[in-house]
Amino acid sequence: MHKNRVLIISFALLLMLAFVGSTIFAADPGFVDGRFTKTRKITVEIYDRSNPGGSPPEDNFYTDFIKKGLLEDHNIEVEFIPVPRWTEDEAINNLLAAGDAPDIAVTYSYPTIQAYANMGGVTDLAPYLEEYKTYLPDLWNLLGDTNIYYNRDPEEGTIWAIEAILFQNKRINTFVREDWLNKLGLDEPTTLEEFENMLRAFRDNAELLLGKDADKMVPYTTSFDVGWRNDHLITSFIPEDFSERDAYVYGFDDRHLLFPNYKEGVRKLNEWYNEGLIWQDFALYGAGDQTEDNMLKAGYVGAFMHNWDYPYRDGQEGIHANLKKLVGEDAAYIAVEPFKNDAGIYRKYLSAPVDRKIFFPSTNTEPLASLLYLNWVSKLENRSFLQIGEEGVSHAIQESGAVQALPVTGEKIMNSPQNIDYTITINGLDLGDPTLNSRSVALNYSGVDSRFIEKAYNITSNEARYGQNIQVGEIESEQGMGTVLSEKRNNLLVQSIVAKPNSFDSVWDRAFQDYLRSGGQAIINERAKKYDDSY
Amino acid sequence: MQQVLSHGRNRKRAVINYLSKYWTLYLMLSIPITYFIIFRYIPMTYIQIAFKKYSIIQNPWQMPWAKNNGFEYFIRAFSNRDFLYALRNTVMLNLLDLIIGFPAPIILALLLNELTFKRFKRFTQSVAYMPHFLSWIIISGLAKQLLAPSTGLVNIALNKLGFASIPFLTKPGHWVATYVFLGIWKNVGWNTIIYLAALTNINPELYEASAIDGAGRFQNIRYITLPGLRPTIVTLLILSLGHILGSEFDRPFALSNSLVSGVSNVISIFVYQYGVRGLQFSLTTAVGLFQSVISVFFLLGANAFAKKFGERGIW
What ipTM does this complex have? Predict the structure, then answer.
């Protein structure tokens, strides 16, 4: 008994000492000349894309570079926590709920951050950004006030997340098989009608184009994510005359589902599907499934829409390289621009230049070290090394100064284009000089002729309309509804496309009503009200 | 007084004797009990989340009560159409599984029991067990390879024979049939094990006697085998009735797609959508609690019913 008491008292004393000690440290953070006197440890989220031939995302040549740099420059030890790219929402939710979230967390979903912030699970960055601003010159240089204060609450002044910069604001493109056009003597389509006729020509000439594999012909593919994968077609049905207010109020679905006349674009896809122009099995395969990519690589597909540089990604493992290997030297996808809106403009709807949202969970006990990390990866020399790698290994410098990517395999391979997963504050190549940038982007896809890239690069944001930063505070009805509504949207779009033409309207109307009733309408109403109150 | 004391002493001694004899058994029992306490009972404190406003940083004792005397989230669940559909789908799929899937292993066990060539019987049994060890993710991959409308092997074969493709996975009605069929395919062999074990307990003299009486195969099955299996069948039936509102996650999730979401969204998928992905943990805990309570009622009801009809029940 007596022994126990002694133990308890000494334990309590120890605790008190520790407490006193920590308060002393808090007064003096041990931070001298931009360096911690004692090594601090932080954890950082990193996307795991599990791509073929890739390296472990949390432990490779580039993570070593970052770890070494931060230890040397700031005495910060970094550990990377891999999170699957295609299910990042769920994964980060689980980590947050379990209290295991990395100190620096990244997601594309702001409502997720807002939901956790409301529960007290996210650190308010505003005071830290203010206090430590002098230590963060590179972060400010790169992101500017726009992206750093992008999510500042107009009333409370809180900042739950800062926005990475979308340096090349590029979204998607329409790709068609250039060699098939040549074989059939067709020009690149410049109107919807030409595009449709091209698809029909692909379908009707399967024998000529695919020989013994004629039955595998797919004129056009899409995936369960209809809104992303057909955006240029569908949004060409949206009237040009469309106010900024409406763009905000109806803009919470990032696939543009609620924009006026969207239904008519989907109706077009429904016609194509029923005409046998669209891959009949597209609805079966979920996120991250490789079936469609394999069809693209094998050369069975005539046209599709996807991320602006999709077929040119992944070097020797990518679609472009595989087409050349499996089909022939001249086989290639080329970006085209066939979809005009009612004003005759090839309108593209792009977001404001924001990308991933970076936030610190409230379990983060090292806000300064974490901000220094962001500053470090935002520094031009660091991020450009991450983007282009080692000279002679990952890139060569041409006479003009432009940087050309070289094919890499083995330990120095990049798991994402330009290592975007590591440069969490920027998405898109930036070497510090605009002309150098555009020249280099075109050369940044090893093994792909730069004419393909230049064309895709120009078309994807040609005649774009950019989203505006509207700060009206939190929209409460959005909380927890993001993924539910996205799922409903995907189901609605897939079911409408596959419906028989005469039941298209009833399928669409029923599912669309369900979407509105399940929370969509509440969001529209709240957004409209808050917008009208603020502007 | 003396007597009482000695009686108490005797009892004490008896307990000590008993324990010194059997303490190893209790030691072994302590392992599962610890397991249940740590992994089953302590987590139950989190059931409170169903009645409280969930917060990631507070423990459940600190969270504030939800509105409507704590029943806010139950009210919300029952006014949520997605939940009602999920409830309907769960009951529908589980009932079909029960009606079609429950008798299947009994029939297979009877068939296997009738096989006289031992080696063939064992081989068939082993082959029938195999699918049990595949995960639903693998089975859904196989199903897509075989049953996809234009690239599935089965449909290619049908097309070559001049028939139209069957939308096994893409039309709701067909999907339900495929779902039930794949469930049987996966588990029928495994579930026969318990019936085959029960069959070995039937007294062989009964068969010898019936042979003398000139009974045929079907009469043997009807009057000897099935009655011999009855207690096992009833026990398993009670247990499966307890699962009528339970829902697997991986099976419907892996087999589902956008076209059949109207019938494939079951309660577990609702919980995943709204809870794990949508962070509405209170709502989904309420749903989970509702599910468990109903399941317990089904279990109790089925057990009472069985006892009423002269069976032993499960306790």
Answer: 0.81
